[in-house]
Amino acid sequence: MTTALETRTARTPPVFAEPHPQEKSLAALRRQADACERCDLYKYATQTVFGEGPSVARVVLVGEQPGDQEDTAGKPFVGPAGRLLDECLQKAGVDRSLCYVTNAVKHFKFERRGKRRLHAKPNAGEIQRCAWWLGGELALLRPDLIVALGATALYSLMGRSVGLTKERGHILQAANGTPVLVTIHPSYLLRIRDHDDRDSERQRFVNELKSIGQRLNA
Hints:
Layout: H1 26-33, E1 59-63, H2 68-73, H3 80-91, E2 99-103, E3 110-113, E4 116-119, H4 124-141, E5 145-149, H5 151-158, H6 164-167, E6 171-173, E7 179-183, H7 187-190, H8 195-217
Parallel strand pairs: 1-2, 1-5, 5-7
Antiparallel strand pairs: 3-4, 6-7
């Protein structure tokens, strides 16, 4: 179960570590991000995968980075993890179309295995450089709640001192005062092989997502 809002904040999380880009709309920020060369990931990815959703969204879902299918499509959360997120949000009574969905890192980082491109975890420097864009999105959206999906998103939003395992299911407070719900990335559920464990973890994830509606309807 989700706890009450905790006012504790981490020191200088990446997303708040430097001034945000001074664009006046998400469309303008997206155009600027399309030409991003803040780290070397742009050299290998197909394109920048910017956030997507209504400009008046009260909830922002933050994942780690685009996957192979997102890199090709140019849209966040359209691969297997995205489809699972859709299912879990629906079971939790949350309308994804009312949420803004984005990632902490906007370019796909991967390792080649033959013709396959396998996910590679972004490093701290890549997260810190790309947090500039996430900070710009959040500054324009001014959401009532941010959902950190996994450790990379949590690090970008809250800093290195906040751990996913300890804080999972809790609502913390970002440096700018916005509540942050801490939960897993749906790709975690896809990696669980044991059927019973997978079902249990999936239900726990759904229960955590239910706190989105509880928070907004309070």
